[in-house]
Write a structure and sequence with these properties.
By secondary structure, this protein is of the alpha/beta class. 65% of the residues lie in helices and 10% in strands. It is built from 21 helices and twelve strands. The strands form three sheets. A six-stranded mixed β-sheet has the order 6-9-10-3-11-12, sandwiched between helices. A four-stranded antiparallel β-sheet has the order 2-1-4-5, covered by helices on one side. Bound molecules: adenosine-5'-triphosphate and magnesium ion. Adenosine-5'-triphosphate (ATP) binds next to helix 12.
């Protein structure tokens, strides 16, 4: 039957790999509700066909034969059928709603958990935009496709079968003629489906770019305003929006071809049928009831046919979304536990870098054949120019990235052979900017250790010199801070970061510019707090202000991924190398200009 040809593209795409996986992972478990929903839709279609069939007795018995029993019986039947139709439609909607929303929720949970296991590099490469749209937009697209694929197919397919049966029952020649148009239409429909899939993919990618840009702009709005870049940002966003518009418009245009083309084919078919059928009735070969029942069925069959045309494109869009979702789900994290990974056994947290080579891009090493010993309980400071690779060292200790050559060991255990969770449990990080979450101060301080009690939190805050400002907040430790809460100053954020590290109470401490956002008064307090924090822990500290690290047990001076000098503050000063020059320059910067020295304004005036 030609109807079958119409459905073939849909069925083909459903046997497609992604659809198959989707069925096993997320749809199969909802089989019961799905079958019920499909049954509801079959009932719905059967009644639609029945209603078309009823036109014949209504016309022939009531209007032509003037049968009084039929006069009340047929209207009553029509009403009863409408009620059943309503109930089945309601049942279907509720059941599919449940199935569809369940699929969204399950997928979102699965994607989110998977993303949480992904390596840091994955997030940094992509930015949050595409990841967020994958969780929201793609899952939504998929839900639409799934619900259409099941109940849409059930309703439309069975309506078509039922209604064409009515047509064939009345006059098979006429029916054959009426459905000749269908294969013609299906060619158009398959073509449109393919185009839609392509355009949908492009518009999704564009949407992700826009989301990412919006996020960046809104997050960096301070910089935007300070630099008068509002117009520039607007122009940039306009460009992205305009491209999105063009892609969406293209999608609409493609979609818009589908309906009118089936419409024209339908119109021609109807015109021909009226001429032929009218002739049959006039000649007495057919009753008017039969003819009008036929016409009713035929008019009714075009709607599900058109829906089926749209159905294909919607399923294609859903499959494109499923493809993107599975691309995310199939990506194995680059950094993960080895199969026989054991928990880290800490004995003070000595760290050793042995001829470590690492590059964010394989071609260009950021760290080159670096060897560094950080004995347990000691403090090692990393200094050096910006971009020298200091923060990268911390990334490697935390195993945010896997190294290319050599080994990183903690207490003699290669960090690739221990579990990630035990590794990170043993390390507290205070980074260049402290990430605060949309939660209470208390929860933010206890972030690294969920079992910390109130006393531990307050003690940590006190030794981080944060207790005073926290109690001055509107709701003290209950004040919600972070993105949509109370906004803290840079120094306050850092003190929370330090308190967070205190609470975690890990044997290894990594400090990246921990005191950079503080004035010297606060810095002194913080330095004391840090000294308390560092006591008895293995500490790697990065500081641009060398005054903060003069007491370190070892200072390693880095340049372009290598350690070029190492020693204590005194040793390095005596050597008179890179460190000594760095220190002298900073020392000189901090000295006030002496009156009478060459560069004073008064000298300039005298000279003039
Ligand atoms: N996630 C990343 N992906 C790719 N390249 C990176 C990444 N992070 C840092 N880099 C590059 O690696 C090099 C070392 O960066 P790193 O952050 O370690 O420098 P740094 O010594 O901490 O500098 P600063 O003192 O400015 O913080 C730089 O050239 C930087 O551009
Ligand atoms: Mg850095």
């Amino acid at each position: 039957m030609s109807v079958a040809r119409h459905v073939v593209p849909v069925l083909q795409t459903l046997s497609d790999g992604v659809a198959h996986r989707l069925w096993h992972d997320h749809i199969k478990s909802q089989k019961g509700a799905l079958i019920l929903a499909v049954l509801c839709m079959i009932l719905f279609s059967a009644i639609t066909s029945g209603q078309a069939f009823l036109v014949k007795p209504a016309l022939d018995e009531v209007f032509i034969n003037r049968d009084r029993t039929m006069l009340w019986f047929i209207p009553l039947l029509v009403v009863v059928l409408s009620f059943i139709k309503m109930a089945s439609s309601y049942g279907q909607a509720v059941l599919m709603g449940q199935v569809g929303q369940r699929i969204i929720a399950d997928l979102q949970k699965r994607i989110f958990s998977h993303l949480m296991r992904a390596d840091l590099g994955y997030f940094l490469e992509r930015g949050p935009g595409p990841l967020i749209s994958g969780l929201t937009y793609d899952t939504q697209q998929l839900r639409v496709a799934v619900s259409i694929a099941f109940t849409g197919v059930a309703r439309d397919l069975f309506s078509i079968i039922g209604l064409t049966s009515v047509m064939f029952y009345h006059d098979w020649r006429l029916a054959c003629f009426a459905i000749v148009g269908i294969p013609l239409a299906s060619v158009v429909i398959v073509w449109i489906g393919q185009r839609m899939r392509k355009v949908a993919g492009q518009s999704q990618a564009q949407m992700a770019r826009l989301t990412a840009r919006l996020e960046q702009t809104f997050q960096g709005v301070r910089q935007v305003k300070a630099d008068n870049r509002e117009d520039h940002e607007a122009a940039f966003a306009h460009g992205l929006i305009e491209r999105l518009y063009r892609l969406n418009y293209k999608a609409v245009r493609t979609q818009a071809v589908a309906s009118p083309s089936t419409e024209v084919i339908g119109g021609i078919a109807i015109a021909t049928i009226i001429s032929y059928g009218g002739f049959q009735v006039i000649e007495g070969h057919m009753t008017p009831g039969t003819f009008f029942s036929f016409i009713t069925a035929m008019l009714l069959v075009y709607r599900p046919l058109k829906a089926l045309a749209k159905l294909n494109t919607q399923i294609q869009e859903g499959l494109a979304a499923a493809d993107r979702i599975y691309t995310v789900l199939d990506r194995e994290p680059l950094v993960k536990d080895a199969t026989d990974a054991k928990p880290l056994q800490t004995q003070g947290g000595a760290i050793r870098f042995e001829r470590v080579t690492f590059g964010y891009q394989p071609s260009r090493p950021t760290i080159e054949s670096l060897t560094l010993d950080i004995p347990a309980g000691k403090t090692v400071a990393l200094v050096g120019a910006s971009g020298a690779g200091k923060s990268t060292i911390l990334n490697l200790i935390l195993r945010f990235y896997d190294i290319d050559e050599g080994a990183v060991q903690i207490d003699g255990q290669d960090i690739r052979e221990i579990t990630l969770s035990s590794l990170r449990q043993a390390i507290a990080l205070v980074s260049q900017d402290i990430d605060l979450f949309d939660d209470s101060v208390r929860a933010n301080i206890g972030y690294g250790r969920t079992d910390a009690d109130e006393e531990a939190i307050i003690q940590a805050a006190t030794s981080a010199a944060a207790h005073d400002f926290i109690t001055a907040l509107p709701e003290g430790y209950d004040t919600v801070i972070g993105p949509s809460g109370y906004t803290l100053s840079g120094g306050q954020r850092q003190r929370l970061g330090i308190a967070r590290a205190m609470v975690k109470n890990a044997p290894i401490l990594l400090l990246d510019e921990a005191t950079s956002a503080l004035d010297s008064e606060a810095e002194k307090k913080i330095q004391e707090a840090l000294n308390r924090l560092m006591r008895g822990r293995t500490t790697v500290v990065i500081a641009h202000r060398l005054s903060t690290i003069v007491d370190a047990d070892l200072i390693a001076v880095m340049d372009q991924g290598r350690i070029v000098e190492r020693g204590t503050h005194q040793e390095l000063l005596q050597r008179g190398g890179v460190y000594a020059r760095l220190y002298e320059r900073q020392f000189a910067d901090q000295q006030p200009v002496e009156p009478g020295s060459e560069a004073t304004p008064s000298d300039v005036r005298h000279g003039a």
